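Field reference: sequence -> structure
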Amino acid sequence: MKKAEKIVLYTAAGGIAAYIVRCIADAVMDRFRAPLPDYFGMGYMSPWGALVVICVLAQIGVLISVLLRRRRNSGKKEISMGYTVSFFCSFIPFLLLLAYSVYCMKAGFTFLWSVCYGWEAFEGAFMIMGLVFVVIPVFPFCVFWQVFYIVRRIKAWKRLKAERS
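Structure field:
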């Protein structure tokens, strides 16, 4: 593992530790009126939550880069079939959101105290459920993996093209 990768891993671990300490500090200041896991969820909806998401994405990126480099150095294909399958599977949450929004056009979408149908239901379901999938970091991880896969695929293609010529 390169020195820069170790620095990123340790810095990201420090960011995650800072998030955990902040959530515990919030719990102590609130005198533990709620269970401790609730404070971790509430902390996620703050700038500290953005920090933890960025730190986790950085760690995943570094670890996948190391894994792909080891595969390349051992003589295996850099992008295996498992990576390709996981790339296509990362589109499933988007397709499910689209299918749910289309379903709500016919069945209706209830938000707070109102029910809407048709295009308004599609729009409401798409926006509200899309926001939920962003808050619960499904879409950010899927988009991260898709971008990471495409960049790695292009680099592998260029490297293979350079080796052939």
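Note: The chain has seven helices and two strands.
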